[in-house]
Design brief:
This protein is mostly helical. The protein is built from 9 helices and no strands. Helix 1 runs antiparallel to helix 9, helix 7 packs antiparallel against helix 8 and helix 8 runs antiparallel to helix 9. The chain is elongated and about 60 Å long.
Length: 217
């Protein structure tokens, strides 16, 4: 096997793996959230503190989602390259929005989540004094407003899924589940809804991902 063939095979396996890992890593990030069954949007400092303070699984879950960012980028770029027929425009614009959205996801988890793990190491007396300042995080003051652009990831994913359906890369039922799952991610930080959405994405993506993995062997 030539070096070119090796590289091509590696790219195919990497893309197939990204299809599998992308929804699974999101699902893990959501289901490890404390108080998962609490249908409660995040509006106050008290709600934020109850979620992350002394809850290591909260930090682990968000770390997993942070590590998912490069996987997501590989997925969007790979799908753009795959769609060269009726779905080519959906593939291109979906990748533009999706990669931008993945960047925003990294910003979101870095600014709003990973920093919380550092604050959680403070002694209780210092943490109590620091807590009121978390209001600027909850309200997304300053340049944190850009995290609202996270919807670009969802829109990009929906566009590419439409392209995948048009080119018959996936079955229509898979595409519908993926689209519904993506849209469910657009909620006011209610992790149970996000978990259901990621679960639907897993059902839609995984059969396709394993099929692509077999083809790359």
């Amino acid at each position: 096997m030539t070096s070119t063939s090796n590289i091509t095979n590696l790219r195919q396996k990497g893309y197939a793996l990204s299809i599998i890992l992308y929804p699974i890593m999101l699902f893990i990030g959501f289901v490890t959230h404390p108080n998962l069954l609490a249908m409660e949007p995040l509006h106050t400092v008290e709600q934020l503190v109850s979620r992350f303070h002394n809850n290591p699984m909260y930090h682990i879950g968000h770390l997993v989602v942070t590590f998912a960012v490069p996987v997501i980028i590989v997925y969007f770029v790979g799908t753009m390259n795959l769609l060269q027929g009726r779905g080519i425009k959906y593939g291109f614009w979906g990748a533009v929005l999706g990669v931008f959205g993945a960047f925003i996801l990294a910003v979101d988890k870095g600014a709003l989540c990973l920093t919380m793990s550092a604050f959680d190491t403070l002694p209780e007396d210092q943490f109590a004094q620091f807590t009121p300042y978390l209001e600027v995080i909850v309200s997304k003051k300053g340049s944190l407003f850009i995290v609202w652009l996270l919807f670009a990831l969802v829109i990009g994913g929906v566009l590419q899924t439409i392209g995948l359906i048009k080119e018959k890369v996936i079955q229509r039922w898979q595409g519908i589940l993926i689209i519904i799952g993506l849209l469910l991610l657009l909620n006011p930080d209610i992790e149970l809804i996000s978990s259901v959405g990621a679960g639907l994405m897993c059902i839609g993506y995984l059969p396709w991902g394993f099929k692509e993995m077999k083809r790359s062997v």
